[in-house]
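BUG: 3D viewer hangs when loading the predicted structure for this chain

Environment: internal workstation, default settings.
Expected: structure renders.
Actual: progress bar stalls at 90%.

Input used:
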Amino acid sequence: MARSTFISYKYDDVVKGREGNNLRDRIVDSLGESAYYYKGEEGTSPDLSGDKDETIRKYLADKIFATTVTILIISKNMKKSSWIPWEISYSLRKTRRGDRNSSRNGIIGVIQADGSNNPYRWYYEAGEKSILPSIVIKNRSNIKREFLCLSYRGLNVFDKSYIEIMKEEDFLASAERIVERTAKKAEDSEKDGIYDLYIQNF
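Structure tokens produced before the viewer hung:
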């Protein structure tokens, strides 16, 4: 099933200087049928630096509202982004606009390789707490105890965190399947309350 997606990322880490060959675009290319329903940016991002925060929030909310999965690119300087935590928080909310409802998004983190011989050392040596925004950390290993103990629906390591994290090549190799699994996990969580979710207020 094709799913609508949004990609959250730090532009300077992921796209700037890499136009035409960057992880954001490779992710979109890997989505198969779901690429048609991709709601995020393509090409060069619009310059919103001079806009008021409320204008930027509306711009991002309009893109995220109609999606079911948010793909978070994990990069070296993502913690310096003031907008990634907001995008993740909005993705985790159930939102209503007039007669339209937006359910909570599933979220998958994709670690960006740095092009070296050991492309993920930067992430594993620094550790999650040094790299990830607090809202991501607080939605890791957050399955409720009763579901973990019951091995709910054949849970595996993937399901112990609402926000799973994987290497970019692993995601790109099975992007459509992973997006579908992430969306299904969000649906199951919504129905059965599987996770203790942390949603940041702004």
